[in-house]
Amino acid sequence: MGRLVLRRLLATVPVLLLVTAGVFALIHLTPGDPVDVMMAESVDDSVKTTLRRQLGLDQPLYLQYAAWMGKLLRGDLGRSIRNGEPVIENVGRRIRPSLQLAALAMAISLVVATPLGILSAARRNTSVDRFGTTFALFGICMPNFLLALLLIFFFGVKLRWLPISGYLDPFEEGLPGLRSLVLPALTLGLALAAVVTRTLRSSMLDALSEDYVRTARAKGLSESRVIRGHVLKNALIPVVTVLGLQLGTLIGGAVITEYVFALPGVGRLVVDAVFARDYPLVQGVVLLIAIGFILSNLAVDLLYGWIDPRIRHR
Amino acid sequence: MAGSIRGSGIAETAAVLPSPPRVRGRRWTVLRQAARTRLGPLGVVVTLATIAVALLAPAIAPYDPVKQDLGNTLARPDRAHLMGTDNVGRDVLSRMIWGTRVSLMAGFGSVALAVAAGGMLGLLAGYAGGRTDGLVMRLMDAVLSFPPLVLALALGAVLGAGLGGVVIALGVVYTPTFARLMRGQVLTITAREYVEAARALGAPGWRIAWQHVLPNASAPIVIQASLSVAFAILAEASLSFLGLGVQPPGASWGSMINAGRGYLQQAPWIVFWPGAALFVTVVGLNFVGDAVRDALDPRLRT
Q1: Does B24 lie at the interface with A, CB-CB under 8 angstroms?
Q2: What is the radius of gyration, based on Cα positions, of chain B?
């Protein structure tokens, strides 16, 4: 296991280097002068020159990269043009709602998908199964923003049960805070639940046709014990893989969801930075998201090795 | 999953998992095939209809999609405006019809770009091997290290708003999938005996690539491409919902939905129709993608 961790960590290094180069290049892909794009034409030329110098845009490219990397390694991601605060602080303020949203969405998806996936497979071709597969198809083809608007329409506008935008911290405000997260988390969680349901169902079906299941049934185990003791464990491996693969989608979905529900998270920060043309902030946040994404993928890989001994010993 | 933009999670799992050969009940196989034969043609019909609408947009749209009528805003659907009008009195049906063009151009355009770029990079990596292979594939890994939507958003931002920027951004996002696929195919196929025989006969590298590798590699590429189009369309809608992509007053489904979300209570039709069009198109393309996969790769049919 230790070797696996080390190997995976080492493999991450060149990728991380390329990722930083890519994020650095972002600002130079802009057609025309980035400072002109960032600032209105009316802004004084001397202000633009100062910003250009601040961003190091008057230096040769390799020097800019070296300087940028040097700062990066000291944890300095630059400052937002809009509010002048360090990128790190901007992100730090926004990370709590995002993590709460992700955790709640993950919980919802597992609560919905686990019984639905298991029942769909165990009662194949019954109405439960048809419901499960239709739900999965809907969830996979339905864009996040559309689901969000449907939920807003029914639970917010028609029934008036839940708030449709804004955010209160559940750890400080209690129930009203939790209520502010319900619709966003449902949006994100149901979409994820669709994928998990589909995967769990098909991997359960695979496991159900294995010889060891026939053996377990032949020795007289009840069907629920067969499923709990033999099928489910084996069926969970693909589910973990899919959850890992869906991380990127989950982050993208969070961007949309936070935008729709005006949730002050990291995703909303990316969108705002993009439209404010706050390039240092875009660079910094995108880089942090990419690093977070790489690290969580690493964690999933290791989890996978922990669940499936066959991977560990390869 | 909704908003997923890097192709089917399911297809990726199939490639990642070292799954044992599958054995399934015969009855299940038959049933699934029956379901497929029903859904495949349905998907084809939906997709062809969508393409027809996109091509015929100028002829079938009843109104100018950008013409405002401030005396007739938020009008309920009636005989004059079958799907109602939006907040500045534009005909929702006409905008939806023109939006079909944007969606299909983004979907097919970005995937075509990704197939071309990814295919060539994969070919290069698989053939050259060694350092070139390492560099190209690490580069692809780096692209994959960004959550797809975040990458597309950042690229779209620097490339500038507009359909072109979105197509290129999504093309970049999908490229690694095809590069990996192509490289894998090159490595498998060039190891086959008939390729060795061709090489022994003195066939030059490009000839082997053209005659043996490309035809054999095309099936998985086509399968992945047909599944990716649906996700690219969802991605374009997401980006134009956020405000990238086609700029106002141009019509795209995502931007129509974003514009209508402030009027959910008074005029839900502004959001409903483009939403339904998006959903039906994506479901149709998914059915086609599944059918293409079954037709080209019977092994995956199980």
Answers
A1: yes
A2: 22
**A116-168 confidence digits (pLDDT tens):** 999 998 888 888 888 998 899 888 889 999 999 999 989 988 888 888 888 88
Contact B238, B4 (CB under 8 A): no
Of the candidate ranges A258-262, B55-59, B79-83, the one whose mean pLDDT is the lowest: B79-83
Name the burial class of residue A222, with classes exposed (0-12), middle (13-18) and buried (19+) by CB atoms within 10 angstroms of its CB.
Answer: exposed
Residue whose pair of structure tokens reads 């990726």 in the numeric block: B12
Partners of B153 on chain A (C-beta within 8 Å) are 255, 270-271, 274
Please, where are the H alpha helices in A81-126?
Answer: 87-122
* CA–CA dist A209, B302 (Å, integer): 13
First to last CA, chain B: 23
User: Residue A250 corresponds to which amino acid?
Assistant: L
Q: Do A251 and B150 touch (CB under 8 A)?
A: yes
Burial B18-46 (b: 16+ CB within 10 A, else e): eeeeeeeeeeeeeeeeeebeebbeebbeb
From residue A162, alpha-carbon distances to A70, A76, A159, B57, B268 in Å are 47, 40, 8, 40, 19
Residue A249 makes CB contacts below 8 A (sequence gap 6+) with: B1, B3, B4, B5, B6, B9, B147, B148, B149
Distance of alpha carbon A186 from alpha carbon A189, whole angstroms: 5
Chain A touched by B229 (CB under 8 Å): no
Q: Which two tokens stand for residue B109?
A: 């355009």
The structure's pTM equals: 0.84
Contacts of B157 (CB under 8 A, 6+ apart): A274, A275, A277, A282, B244
> What's the burial of A152, exposed, middle or buried (CB within 10 Å: 0-12/13-18/19+)?
buried
Question: Hey, of A19, A28, A144, A146, which one would you mutate to test binding to chain B, going by the most B CBs within 10 A of its CB?
Answer: A146
Domains of chain A, residue spans: 94-313
Q: Note whether A134 and A218 are within 8 A (CB).
A: no
In angstroms, rounded to a whole number, what is the distance separating the alpha carbons of residues B76 and B83? 7
Nearest CA to A259 out of A30, A105, A104, A97 is that of: A97
Closest residue of B to A304, CA-based? B17
Query: Which of B133, B150, B227 should we substitute to test contact with A (largest number of A Cβ atoms within 10 Å)?
Result: B150
Amino acid, res. A154: F
User: Is the domain covering A94-313 a CATH 1.10.3720.10 domain?
Assistant: yes
Question: A187: nearest CA in chain B?
Answer: B2
Residue type, B89: G
B112-159 residue pLDDT tens: 999 999 999 999 998 888 899 999 998 998 998 888 898 998 888 788
Among B32, B67, B125, which Cα is nearest to B250's? B67
Q: Exposed (0-12), middle (13-18) or buried (19+): which is B74, by Cβ within 10 Å?
A: middle
